[in-house]
């Protein structure tokens, strides 16, 4: 089998080894590390207790049931109605004084939740990829040096554009 030269002189891997390393890194970046981050967040939110996680889900279902019967294809949602805030930087009150119960279509709620989950997943993938570049051993693809070279080129290009526009500090 052909050997593929890797970034360190004198060290080479077979094609099958390189393919296995690529599969391992890909699964780690896109599946294992994002799943571990999600579990860590769930454990932190539930004080490291499976029972507390279950209680949170059951309590949410119980509270939704207490709001009453919704029309088919809708859920009743309890929202704080203490007025709008003046700016996006203003924090909402800790306690809500006035609540309203509104019907919400299940399809809309599912779409919003799906969008939020997808955004969180891609954030975790980006974090995972960054961690892999910084902390994992070098790979046969030489990703670390390739990524460093790309960032360096991008930085030089941006810095050059800033200097050409007169925004540089070196004048």
General description of the model:
This protein has 171 residues and is mainly alpha-helical. Helices cover 58% and strands 12% of the residues. The protein has two domains: 99 residues, no CATH class; 31 residues. The chain has a two-stranded antiparallel ribbon. Strands 3-4 form a two-stranded antiparallel sheet. The chain is extended, with a radius of gyration of 25 Å. The N and C termini lie far apart (57 Å).
Task: Supply database-style keywords.
171 residues; mainly alpha; 2 domains; two-stranded antiparallel sheet; two-stranded antiparallel ribbon; 12% strand
Main sheet summary: 2 strands, antiparallel
Estimated structural class: mainly alpha
Rg estimate, integer Å: 25 Å
The side-by-side strand order for the widest beta sheet comes to 1-2
Please, what is the average pLDDT?
A: 79
Percent of residues in helical segments? 55-70%
Number of domains: 2
Please, how many helices?
A: 4
Return the string of H and E elements.
Answer: EEHHEEHH
Q: Which spans of ≥5 residues are poorly predicted at pLDDT below 50?
A: none
Principal-axes shape call: extended
The fraction of residues assigned to DSSP E strands is 5-15%
């Amino acid at each position: 089998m052909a050997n593929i030269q890797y970034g360190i002189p004198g060290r080479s891997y077979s094609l099958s080894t390189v393919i296995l390393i690529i599969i391992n890194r890909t699964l780690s970046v896109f599946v294992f590390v994002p799943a571990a981050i999600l579990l860590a967040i769930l454990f932190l939110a539930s004080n490291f207790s499976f029972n507390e996680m279950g209680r949170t889900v059951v309590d949410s279902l119980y509270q939704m049931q207490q709001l009453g019967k919704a029309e088919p294809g809708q859920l009743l949602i309890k929202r704080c109605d203490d007025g709008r805030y003046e700016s996006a930087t203003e924090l909402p009150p800790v306690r809500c004084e006035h609540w309203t119960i509104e019907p919400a279509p299940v399809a809309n709620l599912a779409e919003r939740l799906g969008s939020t989950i997808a955004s969180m997943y891609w954030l975790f993938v980006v974090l995972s990829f960054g961690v892999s570049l910084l902390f994992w051993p070098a790979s046969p693809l030489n990703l670390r040096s390739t990524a460093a070279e790309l960032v360096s080129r991008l930085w030089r290009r941006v810095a050059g554009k800033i200097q050409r526009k007169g925004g540089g500090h070196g004048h």
